[in-house]
Amino acid sequence: MKNHLNAIPDVEVTPMNMFELNELRINKELIAYIRFNENKAMVFPHFNYASKVGKPFYANTEQMQISIEKFKRKKRETDYPCFS
Questions:
Q1: Contact call for residues 40 and 83 (beta carbons, < 8 A)
Q2: In angstroms, rounded to a whole number, what is the distance separating the alpha carbons of residues 70 and 74?
């Protein structure tokens, strides 16, 4: 089976954890990964859900963008506490 995470190169791949799922308000049972770039979040469903969806799908709403920016800020503050 071809790895669906190779669909979009050169974008960060972030395994989802509870913090991210809550921040992005996405059903944790359906989502496996999200890829971030400048203006989109590429959402990768779990394999058991991907068969219904058929392929990864884009989430690009204003609310999603606000959540992504909040997540990135919190992640930076966590990664680099001296800058918080």
A1: no
A2: 6
Domain coordinates of the chain in residue numbers?
10-77
d(C-alpha 47, C-alpha 80), whole Å: 34
Strand order in 57-59's β-sheet? 12-15, 31-36, 41-45, 57-59
Check: CB of residue 64 under 8 Å from CB of residue 36: no
Q: Which residue has the higher pLDDT, 34 or 62?
A: 34
Residue appearing with tokens 């799922």: 21
pTM: 0.24
User: Considering only CA atoms, which of 62, 34, 58 is closest in space to residue 46?
Assistant: 34
Which residues on adjacent β-strands are paired with residue 58? 42
**What is the rounded distance in angstroms from the CA atom of residue 62 to the CA atom of residue 69?**
11
